[in-house]
Amino acid sequence: MLKTGHAIRTDGPARPVIHAARRGCRPAPGLPLIALLAGFLLAPPPAHAQDDVAIPGIQLGLAYETLYIPPLAILPFTGPATSREVIAEVQSIIARDLDFSDRFVVLDSLPEGLADEGIQYSLWDQYGADWVLVGDIGEFAGRHFLSIELHDIVFTSVERGRFPLPPLGDEDFRMAVHRISDSIVEWVTGDPGPAASRILFAMRPFGNPSAKELYVVDSDGENLRRVTWDESIAISPTWAPDGRHAAYVSYKSGLPRIYELDMADGGERAVEIGRADQQITPAYHPNGEELAFSLMGAGLFRYNLRDECCLAQLVGGPANNIQPSYSPDGDRMIFVSSRLGEATPQVYVIPALGGEATLLSPYRYGQGGYFADPDWSAVSNKVAFAGGIHRRRVMNRYHIFVADPEVGDNRLIQLTAEGNNEDPSWGPDGRHIVFAGERSNGFGVFIVDSGTRRTRTVVASVRASDTDWSPALAAGPAGAGNR
Amino acid sequence: MTNRRFVLAAFATTILLAACGSEPEPQMAPEPTGPTAEELERMRQDSIRRAREAEEARLRREREAAERERQRAAEMARRTLMETVYFDYDEATIRSDTETSLRAKLDILRDNPGVQLRMEGHADERGTSEYNIALGNERAESVIQFLTGFGLDGGRFTSVSYGEEQPAAQGSTEAAWARNRRVEFVITAGGDGIGR
Q1: Strands (E), A305-357
Q2: Which of A8, B90, B94, B121 could join B140 in a cystine, given CB atoms 3.0 to 4.6 angstroms apart?
């Protein structure tokens, strides 16, 4: 909890946030008296406590919107007795996906008798559900299908869909069900959910504390698998827009170099750009053909992977320029530069072919600050990055921030409030962000909803880094990541 | 010695006998009882060889001592070359203790133009992992700049940065961090020629 108490919640549903002028804290009307008293007792808080969270000159007051999250009731899925296992599995995956979408309050422990006589809208309205989900598993020619009805209790309408299911145990089974969940979210909100996706990250493999390997996990935390087996250092994975390929950096040649993985068949190739420099921090252009990256000490470059040509410099100069990330239209990019001094990396926006860089992170002269790991959402056009104001010889505590590049740093949203938080990466819904975090109970991979700030653990108790969230994974070989 | 004395005595007797015999009394010379001339020559050569061998052994011991001393000096030089240098938090500037170590390396590198080094830059765990690779690189480059600034050929040095990925000390303490903010040195060529 914050020293100023109560102002920020990361794990609950949306509620209005009161923040946080630089000195002290103004409690919200209606907060319990005890919190109010605590606010007085602790104000003004010790300076070092403020350093962890507050950014001078930045209003964090518009932290997030007050959202109404509609209740959605899930009726027990039905189907032939022979398919009981499939029915249970499908229902549990969908119920969890809808919960993780943070678009509904999922009601799945329903009172007896409520669903006995078909869907009676007035009854459900009284019960307080805005949506009712009905699922029925059918079997035809040895294949399972899921028929879904989504009842809109408020507007008394219904949406129907029928989805084929791979056999239970098939490696695409869970992903196929995730895609159904994402469709249900799309029916309600107009935007698909983020469930049918995977997350790449790096960590030390068991038994070799000096190595680092890539791992991949489904967005719901299932199906954790190791991807690289080089016994070297593998870092900075980044998904290609096709959801099948991923670029990353490995030290297996002795120097950091970029390689491209085929996540479907396990193939790999070195990205040969014809220069001996150390290559770090790759990022795909939205066209999927070009890769931007940093050549150590030289600056940012791009290279055409498909034609294997056309190395071009985008950013140069004596400062460190690393971690490019393209805007959705590919016209601009964000990156990290130390041009204001080596101890204060900051996030900048620049035209994609190079040009004048605009400071995006909240730098204030003389106050330091450390902001890095930027990621530009391909969907919502927002930028996430990690950082904080840090003072020398103080243990750093970084937080995840979201900025709108159109507006700049005056509407910065801080999503985390505890522990250390790095490597944010947008999910395919442009709303959730995965990051590598440290909490009082350990390290892990976490997902935070930028709308509600609800945070959940994806992989617990792993010291992960360089988290990168895939685009939506389509069915079939192109949507791979299945190895 | 006894042998030699005996030979001398035999000579003397012969000479005396020859001198006394004024009357050329034809008389058979007594069969010499000492070593023959060939034996004497062989003995002489033998003693020369022994003396030479003794001298050679002495010289060899001296050479070996000198070689041991040279190897010790070369090992010291190698150790000095490979001595890790350390940096302040978030800094790539050369500290005074780092400068002392680099100046010692400088002398050795001047004396051994065949030696080539790889500078391996590292950072502590604070800061983001990818920016720390850039920071480790700055430290390695800062060391190379120091050495080339004194006139050494930059072509003798390469660098690689591991960022925070290869800590020398585990743990999240200032002591561990201080040991991890470093540049390590690897001799990539000419290591055998040091001190020759």
Answers
A1: 309-315, 321-326, 332-337, 346-351
A2: B121
